[in-house]
Recover the amino acids of this structure.
């Protein structure tokens, strides 16, 4: 007997001899396989693959997909991840043969359109960042951070200041920031947040010095708060000889409103798969381009696209740190991002940000009487509640609240991050949701707060309606079983 599963494994559906394909009769001379592959490299037995029909395969994957929650199924307010709706027209564009069927080894003259797209996208991102030169190569946000820090390191080394090895990072930072520092061999110096959720400038003054390589900051930060002291912070770092790195993974609050370059940042990365509308989750593909100021353009990874007359060509910057990605990066992600930027235009992008900020503030103001809002300020594209009241009064934890939301058909917000907030619940509604969705979610969040008071057990034992209940997430991550094993 096989174990009862939600969806039988495809191997368990196998029926000997069943096929999902039919090949035409061979109309060329048959060549014995031993002439093509050395006999010592041949299998002795055929692989134990499932033998299934096309319909069975289709049902199998459709059933699996129904166990997942996605933005196409319902609201997905996952703070710091910008799960916005990705217009389907971008998928049409990404699948155009001129984009999808080209090969990176093709001569430049035959892919001028693709190069033009990369060139224009680079320029647009530079305008949005308020900086000068772009590389599209990095494949993710964290990869952009690594690339940016390598550029920073090359800059200090060229100036004979290779000893600078300290990177200042706020305690509210995304975990990838310190991880990227470790990758380039920088020491992390943590700066605390002040009572308004921004960088504690007085503390920062005591931390900058001759070994400061730079500062990594997200602005608005992971609390969804804009750091009002950014100009003073930039001056402090620059005066000490350091550079400023902007983690722009979530640029949903600032497009067309504020530019990192104007705030004093020297390097920015964007997550095309968050702000610029590429489906994400499940590991990609994504793209984390970086944009840098003029002095740093010489260090960018090559090749980058340049325009010579009306021709586009690949060039490698003079003091390039080298490639960080095979070929030219995740090109079809660029196609989607480019379509997104062009279809909105400057005004439209500004409207995206204004709406994202409005939605977050609307929701925060409708929830802050029932959940603690530790930093009660006008927020940007997201806000962070605390489940502390529920924990202290009723023993209901943030994790319970997150699980209870699943019963109502929502993806849970980001929880227990940023670490500066006890029992954090980080909500990012995004601009793509209608007001009715926001209102329904507010209603359910309020209802859960009430349940925590009147029937805490129902929250603590949630979820009740999902195909599986509480999973052992750490074991799933540490001991994943990713292959079928015949029992
Ligand atoms: C998502 C995110 C990152 C990392 O981006 P990946 O593409 O997942 O590597 C970095 N910083 C912040 C603030 C983020 O939200």
């Amino acid at each position: 007997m096989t174990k009862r599963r939600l969806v039988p494994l495809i191997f368990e559906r196998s029926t000997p001899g069943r096929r999902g394909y039919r090949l035409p009769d061979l109309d060329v001379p048959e060549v014995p396989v031993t002439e093509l592959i050395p006999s010592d490299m041949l299998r002795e037995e055929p692989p134990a693959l499932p033998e299934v029909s096309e319909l069975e395969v289709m049902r199998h994957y459709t059933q699996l997909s129904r166990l997942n929650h996605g933005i196409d199924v319902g609201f997905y307010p996952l703070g710091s991840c910008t799960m916005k709706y990705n217009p389907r027209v971008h998928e049409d564009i990404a699948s155009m043969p001129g984009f999808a069927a080209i090969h990176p080894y093709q001569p430049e003259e035959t892919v001028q359109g693709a190069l033009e797209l990369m060139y224009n996208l680079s320029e647009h991102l530079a305008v949005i960042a308020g900086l000068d030169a772009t590389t599209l190569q990095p494949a993710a946000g964290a990869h952009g951070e690594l690339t940016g820090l390598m550029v920073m390191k090359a800059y200090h080394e060229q100036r004979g200041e290779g000893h600078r090895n300290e990177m200042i990072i706020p305690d509210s930072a995304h975990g990838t920031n310190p991880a990227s520092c470790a990758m380039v061999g920088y020491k992390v110096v943590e700066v605390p947040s002040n009572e308004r959720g921004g960088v504690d400038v007085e503390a920062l003054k005591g931390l900058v010095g001759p070994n400061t390589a730079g500062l990594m900051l997200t602005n608005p930060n992971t609390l969804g708060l804009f750091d009002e002291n950014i100009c003073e912070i930039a001056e402090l770092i620059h005066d000490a000889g350091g550079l400023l790195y902007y983690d722009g993974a979530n640029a949903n609050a600032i497009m067309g409103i504020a530019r990192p370059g104007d705030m004093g940042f020297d390097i920015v990365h964007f997550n095309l798969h968050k702000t610029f509308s590429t489906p994400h989750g499940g590991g990609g593909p994504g793209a984390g381009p970086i944009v840098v100021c003029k002095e740093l353009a010489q260090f960018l990874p090559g090749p980058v696209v340049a325009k010579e007359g009306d021709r586009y060509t690949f060039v490698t910057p003079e003091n390039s740190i080298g490639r960080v990605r095979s070929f030219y990066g995740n090109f079809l992600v660029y196609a989607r991002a480019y379509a997104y930027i062009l279809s909105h235009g400057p005004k439209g992008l500004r409207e995206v940000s204004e709406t994202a900020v409005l939605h977050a503030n609307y929701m925060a103001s409708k929830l802050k009487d029932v959940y603690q809002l530790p930093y009660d300020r006008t927020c940007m594209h997201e806000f962070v509640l605390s489940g502390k009241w529920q924990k202290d009064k009723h023993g209901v934890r943030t994790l319970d609240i997150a699980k209870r939301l699943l019963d109502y058909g929502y993806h849970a917000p980001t929880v227990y991050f940023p670490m500066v907030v006890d029992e954090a619940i980080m909500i990012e509604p995004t601009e793509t949701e209608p007001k009715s969705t926001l209102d329904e979610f507010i209603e359910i969040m309020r209802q859960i707060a009430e349940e925590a008071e009147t029937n805490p057990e129902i929250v603590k034992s949630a979820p009740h309606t999902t195909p599986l209940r509480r999973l052992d997430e750490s074991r799933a991550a540490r001991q994943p079983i990713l292959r079928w094993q015949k029992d």
Q: What stands out?
A: The CA atoms of residues 373 and 385 lie 5 Å apart.
